[in-house]
């Protein structure tokens, strides 16, 4: 997979290093040429000193050939512009954008070319809730500009889903159970899988179908 990362700050360089270590082709665009020269010897990826908010810079970097663009600058306006250009001008299949200020989260949607937005405060909140909430539906990750989410619920003893096979659960077509964690082990969901008390159930669901999923797994 070929990935372009905009922004060579601590977040961008950490992501670049991880992706490179996992065997992906990575290029990083950074507007500070001095920073690029300092970082170039540290990681054997493609470093480009350019403004990722300029169409000409993105074109010269070959953005039309990448599979994923990650906008990780410390400026939300820049990340939105980069996302929009990546999607509209270069038809990049997947665009991931960093949200620096939670009040701007609502802007990071498909209208700005964002497929997945990542807000550190919201992610931390979700992880805290996921750790302490039993019998509650917790949103972990947002996709497609807010139209769909990855949610998690740890089944309580009174959940209507306990003792029920997935095929009989009545999950709406706009939702899919993607994984079950039971006693620290991953259970691949199958139609005959019977849910148990304490199961952590991960569901990909659209916003419209979320109330029905909550009713089926939580009961309220």
Protein model, in words:
The protein is of the alpha/beta class and 220 residues long. Helix content is 27%, strand content 27%. The protein is built from six helices and eleven strands. It has a six-stranded parallel β-sheet, with helices on both faces. Strands 7-8-11-9-10 form a five-stranded antiparallel β-sheet. The chain starts with a strand and ends with a helix.
Summarize the structure.
With 220 residues, the protein is an alpha/beta fold. The protein has helices at 10-21, 33-39, 55-60, 76-88, 120-132, 210-217; strands at residues 2-6, 25-30, 46-49, 68-71, 94-99, 116-119, 138-143, 148-154, 175-182, 185-187, 200-206.
Taken from the alpha-carbon principal axes, the silhouette is elongated
How many domains make up the 3D coordinates?
2
CATH topology name of the largest domain: Rossmann fold
- The number of helical runs is 6
Alpha-carbon distance between the two ends: 42 Å
The CATH superfamily of the largest domain is NAD(P)-binding Rossmann-like Domain
CATH architecture of the largest domain: 3-Layer(aba) Sandwich
Salient structural properties:
five-stranded antiparallel β-sheet, 6 helices, 220 residues, 27% helix, alpha/beta, 11 strands, elongated, Rossmann fold, Alpha-Beta Plaits, 2 domains
Give a topology summary.
Layout: E1 2-6, H1 10-21, E2 25-30, H2 33-39, E3 46-49, H3 55-60, E4 68-71, H4 76-88, E5 94-99, E6 116-119, H5 120-132, E7 138-143, E8 148-154, E9 175-182, E10 185-187, E11 200-206, H6 210-217
Parallel strand pairs: 1-2, 1-4, 2-3, 4-5, 5-6
Antiparallel strand pairs: 7-8, 8-11, 9-10, 9-11
